[in-house]
Every structure is written in C-alpha cells, then in structure tokens.
Design brief:
- By secondary structure, the chain is α/β, with parallel strands linked by helices.
- Helices cover 42% and strands 14% of the residues.
- Helix 6 runs parallel beside helix 7.
- The longest helix has 16 residues.
- It is globular.
- The two termini are 27 Å apart.
C-alpha cells in the first residue's frame, strides 16, 4: 500500500535555479500531476503524502515541508546540510563548485532573501507548517552534524512539530 516516487533533481538543491532548470516548479506542480495521471488510484490526500531525503534530499525535504505543507504531512530529513551560504563560500571547495552554487541560488544576498534559506524561512513558515511533522536525524561522525543541529534548533525555536535524533554514523 505504499508508492515511492524518487525524482532526479540533479544538483539543483530542489530549486528553480538562477541559471538552469526550474526543478522546484517541476517537483511541486508538474510531477504530482504526472504521477496521479499514471497512478490514478494513489491518494492525493495530504495526510497520506510524505517526503524524505538524505543529504541534498534532506535539504529538499525540509524545504518541501516548510514551503508546501499543503502537500506533505510528514518530513524525514537525514544528514541535512541546510546552510547553502556555507557551500557558496567554503574555501575547501573548488571554484567550479562555488560557481555551481551561484548558478543555483544566485548571489549570497539573493539566497538569503529568497525561499532557499531554510533558516530565514523557518520562523516565517512555522504557522503554515504547524500540522506537518518533521523528523531530523544525523550521525555523530557526519561532516554535517553542526548544520543538522543548527537547523533542528531553528525548527525547534520556531515551534515546529519536530523530533531530532543522533547516533553513531557518518554521511550515509
């Protein structure tokens, strides 16, 4: 009684890219229509629809839960790296990767001003997402543990219905 839909979002971070494709629009508007056209027996009820992801997918799952709580009743985010400004400016990343993040999100100022910044969105979207349950998990040896903890704190501070858990493990 479960259907698992696993769309490919490439390296879009589930975003309508500044220079690239409109993945957010595709995933939130076009894909649900396609899925229900192919599988008309699938429920369209929000309470029957969940979203989950690992790593970039966890970022996407949190974003879906915040920005589209009308679609999803549960969110599972495993090893989320929510801080794209960190990715945009990380001196350990090669130049091509910096360009990629700027192609996706634009300038750092644009990123912070728009819906991709989960920290900015958390308090703004909390009321709309009050009936969405969030589960965040991260391994204690995961490189994104500090970011996972910080987004969990941001969601908790904004009164999301959220559970956060950690245990031994890395980014897998």
């Amino acid at each position: 009684g479960v259907a698992v839909i696993m769309p490919d979002a490439n390296m879009s971070w589930y975003t309508d890219m500044k220079r690239g494709f409109r993945y957010w629009t595709h995933l939130t508007e076009e894909l649900p229509k396609i899925v229900h056209r192919f599988f008309p027996a699938l429920s369209t009820a929000r309470e029957d629809t969940f979203v989950a992801g690992l790593s970039m997918g966890a970022y996407g799952a949190i974003k879906f839960g915040m920005l589209r709580p009308d679609m999803f009743s549960y969110v599972g985010a495993f090893s989320p790296p929510p801080d794209m400004a960190h990715h945009m400016n990380n001196p350990e990343f090669p130049e091509w990767e910096h360009r990629l993040y700027h192609d996706i999100f634009g300038t750092e100022e644009e990123y912070h001003a728009e819906d991709g910044d989960l920290y900015t969105q958390a308090p703004l979207r909390a009321e709309a997402a009050k009936n969405t349950k969030f589960f965040l998990y991260c391994g204690t040896e995961d490189v994104y543990l500090p970011q996972s903890r910080s987004i969990a704190k941001a969601l908790s501070d904004a009164d999301y219905d959220m559970v956060y858990a950690e245990s031994a493990g890395d980014h897998n």
